[in-house]
Amino acid sequence: MKGWDPNRRAEVERIYYAGGAANVWGPYTIGYLEWNGTKWVDQSAPVFVANEEWEHGSVYEPNLIYHDGKWKMWYVAGSNQEDYLVQGYSESVDGRTNWTKHQIVFPAEEKVFDFCVIKTKQGYEAIFSRVFLGKGVPLATTGLWWCQTKSPTAKISDWSKPVQIMGMSDSPWHLGGPWKPSLQYSETDPNRMFVFFDGLYPRKDPAPFPYVFTLGCMELARP
């Protein structure tokens, strides 16, 4: 994504990501790569870390936009292994320092894993995923959801009522539900949506990592 760096007084392009320095299972912190005109350059230290008790020491799955002079970030806090996922939000003028107090967008019982926001002709739209990491039958809410707003904020009440666009019955090969969605509109039909998303399923052969990652896409009319 592109945004303004007030310290350098220049537009910059970044890729934000989460990583666990000690273990692939976490805890995680968030950093970014920045384009210097020739290559992507990593930062020497994380730029966003957990600092609230409800984050359980781990922050990941960052989704950012640059809006109204601020870098706005939605992210996951918690742990997949604990089946505890909270969708958080914070913002920063430079996208690197002085992040605002971390806020809860969706509490743990909502099981929201990603909240991806894009700017459109109608304002702003978001695709988000609800996952199911517990035992038993997945909840009916598991899947992908869509909502919109005129101005993006941390308050979900400022957004339209979410519409479910994919359930588990539509994607049985996704263990725990689809996740990490992204949205693009057709270049020829402004009302045609393409939603890309990740999924996973257990490996049949022995391996250090027990899952296989997959990539899917669904095409649909704008809700």
CATH topology: Tachylectin-2, Chain A
In the CATH scheme, the class would be Mainly Beta
Order of helices and strands: EEEEEEEEEEEEEEE
Q: Considering the protein shown, what is the CATH homologous superfamily?
A: Glycosyl hydrolase domain, family 43
Distance N terminus to C terminus? 25 Å
Rg, Cα atoms, Å: 18 Å
Q: Which runs of at least 5 residues are low in confidence (pLDDT < 50)?
A: none
Q: Keywords for this structure?
A:
4-stranded antiparallel sheet, 223 residues, 15 strands, mainly beta, single chain, globular, Tachylectin-2, Chain A
Topology of this protein?
Blueprint: E1 2-5, E2 10-19, E3 29-35, E4 40-42, E5 59-67, E6 70-79, E7 84-92, E8 103-106, E9 112-120, E10 123-130, E11 143-149, E12 163-167, E13 179-185, E14 192-202, E15 211-221
Briefly, what is this?
This protein is an all-beta fold and about 220 residues long. The protein has strands at about 1-5, 10-20, 30-35, 40, 60-65, 70-80, 85-90, 105, 110-120, 125-130, 145-150, 165, 180-185, 190-200, 210-220.
Description:
This protein is mainly beta and 223 residues long. It has one domain (2-221): 5 Propeller (Tachylectin-2, Chain A). The chain is built from no helices and 15 strands. A hairpin with a 4-residue loop joins β3 (29-35) and β4 (40-42). The two termini are 25 Å apart.
